[in-house]
From TrEMBL:
<dbReference type="InterPro" id="IPR042047">
    <property type="entry name" value="SleB_dom1"/>
</dbReference>
<dbReference type="InterPro" id="IPR011105">
    <property type="entry name" value="Cell_wall_hydrolase_SleB"/>
</dbReference>
<keyword id="KW-0378">Hydrolase</keyword>
<dbReference type="GO" id="GO:0016787">
    <property type="term" value="F:hydrolase activity"/>
</dbReference>
<feature type="signal peptide">
    <location>
        <begin position="1"/>
        <end position="27"/>
    </location>
</feature>
<feature type="domain" description="Cell wall hydrolase SleB">
    <location>
        <begin position="45"/>
        <end position="142"/>
    </location>
</feature>
<dbReference type="Pfam" id="PF07486">
    <property type="entry name" value="Hydrolase_2"/>
</dbReference>
<protein>
    <submittedName>
        <fullName>Cell wall hydrolase</fullName>
    </submittedName>
</protein>
<keyword id="KW-0732">Signal</keyword>
Length: 165
């Protein structure tokens, strides 16, 4: 009987660990972060990947979005179409796994701050509530603010090399 209980406890612990580290049956948290970075950033820019990851984590920690990386990345109309389904060619993006693990361990892009949004740097939005904090990796990162609190209404010049390897 003791062996059976031990086996059941181990199975339960294994299941709990699997649930904590996965996003359903399809992807782990690491894989979802890699996919967000791969499809949303300039894959050659460590700064861009870490900035995208920082936004994902800001959303996870905000209480306004799903509480998991996969939940945030998989939200409809929030990230690149097919972000969780399209094929990745990881040979072309060797920094992605390292960047994803680094962000999941706590690294953040220091200039992203509390930003929870970004768009392609070339896109020009006409909203008056976008306070830009960083442009890197082909994206412009911003916070949504009350219009009277916006002090940087246009994307900043791109900057790279802030995040170390």
């Amino acid at each position: 009987m003791t062996r059976t209980r031990t086996a059941l406890r181990l199975a339960g612990a294994s299941l709990a660990l699997a649930l904590l580290t996965s996003c359903g049956a399809r992807h782990t948290e690491v894989e979802c972060m890699e996919r967000a970075m791969y499809f949303e950033s300039n894959r050659s820019s460590l700064d861009g990947m870490v900035a995208v990851g920082s936004v994902v984590m800001n959303r996870v920690e905000s209480g306004q979005y799903p509480r998991s990386v996969c939940g945030v990345v998989g939200q409809r109309n929030q990230f690149a179409p097919g972000v969780l389904d399209r094929r990745m060619e990881t040979r072309t993006a060797p920094l992605v796994p390292q960047a994803a693990r680094s962000v999941l361990r706590g690294q953040r892009h220091p200039l992203v701050g509390n930003a929870q949004f970004f768009h392609a740097a070339s896109y020009r939005a006409s909203y008056n509530n976008m306070h830009y904090v960083l442009t890197t990796g082909g994206n412009a990162f911003y916070e949504r603010r009350d219009p009277e609190r916006v002090t940087q209404p246009v994307p900043l010049p791109p900057i790279e090399g802030i995040v170390g390897r």
